[in-house]
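Archive entry. Fields below.
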Amino acid sequence: MINNSKNIEESLEHKEKIVLLSHGAGGQLQNELIKFITKNAVLRRVDDGIGLDEFDDGATIPLKEINKDIVITSDGHTISPIFFPGGDIGILSATGTINDLLMMGATPVAISSIVFIEEGFPFSKLKLIFNSFNKVLESCNVALIGGDTKVFPKGTLDQIAISTTGIGFKPSNLKILDSNLQPSDKIIITGTIGDHGAAILANRKEINFDTNLVSDVAVLLPIIKQINNLEWIHAMKDPTRGGVAAALNEWAQKSNVSIILDESKLPIKKEVKSIADILGLDPLELTNEGKALISVSSEYAEIVLNRIRKTEIGKNAEIIGEVSKDHPGKVMIRTFLGGTKFINMPIGEPVPRIC
Amino acid sequence: MINNSKNIEESLEHKEKIVLLSHGAGGQLQNELIKFITKNAVLRRVDDGIGLDEFDDGATIPLKEINKDIVITSDGHTISPIFFPGGDIGILSATGTINDLLMMGATPVAISSIVFIEEGFPFSKLKLIFNSFNKVLESCNVALIGGDTKVFPKGTLDQIAISTTGIGFKPSNLKILDSNLQPSDKIIITGTIGDHGAAILANRKEINFDTNLVSDVAVLLPIIKQINNLEWIHAMKDPTRGGVAAALNEWAQKSNVSIILDESKLPIKKEVKSIADILGLDPLELTNEGKALISVSSEYAEIVLNRIRKTEIGKNAEIIGEVSKDHPGKVMIRTFLGGTKFINMPIGEPVPRIC
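PREDICTED_STRUCTURE:
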């Protein structure tokens, strides 16, 4: 029997669509997966708070009587290996959640966590992981208020996964949003790009580079405290899965502006460049776990930059680009050679379980 | 070489302690696991809200200016099979979280969910699961405000796991707490005992009973609405993992009272009795997913009972026991034969992934 192209097309149509690794990788496919899961949700926000459709770092529930918003953010953490240079899944879970609250302009107050554990997992490792987790909370004055644990039979979960939900408060008039970039804003990055992604990849069993590179995992609280005036800031985002490329493309699309980066200004460590080169990856698509992108009015950009540089985690901060009203939705880069090229939304970071 | 008992003891001490399936089963071992994970958390509540140490269905963050509490509850859902008689992991996740908020006396407002998916999982199943999930939210006027998705490489997670965090509000003067049972209170159960646990077990591949029994998974909102006066109620709890036995033992310990059940009053379906008998399990230790235990002042017990019975899901409600100040911390049952025996805290339900 000879298949004609129509038959092939039909068989493809009938072939069941399945979830791919890249559906979890923070790029375009992940957005599609989330939209698929949530498309039938009827109520998508509380009152006029930030909800599902904003797709921001967190959601808000307005408390009108007191001019405050509750800010809520939820994350799942599945990193492999669970202990990595510079941290472990415990630090990562607590840090990621606190950073998401900070990126909305909120003061983090409480966390609840759900821990999925594989049968046979040693208590000694649990101890290390939750010592790390609890230390991060303590350092930020955040309470652990509850959670849940579930145990999977051996072979049905790889070691451990942690879900965290963070709760904070922000003044309702403070709008630090993905959709709030303004033309002529400057874009600041608070430090070197791609360290976490490169460090994890270099230490995967199947790669195992010899490098001193460690993850940048860190809470961004010292930077927020040092800036000390969030009114100047239009948007903040920690470029985790999908990296700087995904974060900036989201901003450009949601704010209907373009962002033009200056390649000569991008702080990237030599080791990160080498690892990315060898693996054929773009550092701009690698995950960061202790960095913020900040979009700020040009008149305050230098002040904010200098304040950030006073912190240990922000000493390598740079103004890496600016916002324009031309070419809305696009992210571009002026290269060393003088040309300009587009930076596209990653389809999906090619490596699973990076955070 | 002959081992003496001291050597055996030493080797046991040095053998690494590992997580067992029963650490996830809602009994005494689960409490130990949670205490182990959280022991180094320094901040354990927000202001004078309910936090870690209360170990209740949820936590609270007081909003003093408006005499309200935010109520927060987090759950992990790992049931196997993910589609079961009477429901699926989607209904279960949304229902369990909404019920926990209701059991604290809160009005549920919003949910965020984190979905862990195995690579290769079909979108057709995701569609069914999240249609179920979103329908439950719609029926309770609860908004889906955010979440996260992560994909595990094939073979590192069995199909799907869902974490949910629910947010609601309650008046701050309403104290419906595990620690609030009063001597002479009556204990109501809103329907038959053990249906969910028995239905899931009967349908496990390795057991596969022929039965029409279905899970009782249901939101308890109609019952709460019908009661219409939560001031009468001292404590409410949905007896999920560890069943009625675990829930009542927690109550007795936290409230420093005893609870005496009347075996002749326990509503248990014949099918559940048979399945439990054959598997050597106690229906009182089986999971329920659509039932509430309610501790209420004796003067209001009949009124509350009659209101509950007016609802479809509460038509089999019964007053099953009472609270006493004698033998604090103990749960007892007056048997059909006239004797009295203790009902102990389950060590850990003997079957994993029941919810």
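CURATOR_NOTE: The first strand of chain A starts at residue 59 and ends at 63.
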